[in-house]
Amino acid sequence: MIAAENLTLRYPGASDPVLDGLTFSVEAGGFRWLLGPSGAGKTSLLRLLALAARPTEGRLVLLGTDLEGATRRERTRLRRRIGNVFQDFRLLPHLSAFDNVALPLRLAGRPEGQIRADVREMLDWVGLASRADAPPARLSGGEQQRVAIARAVIARPALLLADEPTGNLDEAQAERLMQLLAELNRLGTTVLVATHNTGLLKQRPGDVLRLEAGRAGLF
Ligand SMILES: Nc1ncnc2c1ncn2[C@@H]1O[C@H](COP(=O)(O)OP(=O)(O)OP(=O)(O)O)[C@@H](O)[C@H]1O
Ligand SMILES: [Mg+2]
After folding, report:
1. Closest Cα to atom 29, ligand 1: which residue?
2. Of 3, 29, 47, 170, which has fewest CB within 10 angstroms of its CB?
3. Residue 108 belongs to what domain range?
């Protein structure tokens, strides 16, 4: 599902690489916590896995595709199978909560009737049924985060990358989110969650990928 070998990322102008020769793998259907102090490179690693950046060195095989030889088309197809919960949400400001969540289904060409039913059910699940028409600017931080989560999972991605997905949620909402991720994982999605909130680990034990100043180890 994910196989990284000697994965290295150096930002332009930086003297040290942010990720320095990471080797790890995550099996299909696996669940991993990605831990590490602020600045350790969690978001940077997720960007590589989301195909939003290319490694400076090393090899990455995602969903059976070696990214090195992958064409643009293959990369685009891969991206559609990956759900992302961004640390900073990245909702589209001119779209309502409903339309933000509907976006992946519309890109996948699902029929509008099914989209309406699925999006309503998902918004209901994350407790935002009454906020469906609101644009992101009129939602609280936690509400925006829940829209971002709903958008990431609605199309049942093969791989879900969640970056600090409970950063703006209260305890009850965080618990509900964990149920959602566990259910998605049970249905076959491989899940990788970056977090500082180690309390979450008690709710959902799983293997840990730990970044320490760019070095990853499995614990
Ligand atoms: N686009 C960029 N250009 C240059 N340096 C960057 C860029 N993005 C991140 N960095 C640097 O890379 C390092 C790792 O950042 P990253 O955002 O991956 O950390 P993180 O583990 O996600 O931190 P946090 O827990 O605070 O979200 C930091 O030192 C950061 O300043
Ligand atoms: Mg981060």
Report:
1. 39
2. 170
3. 89-141
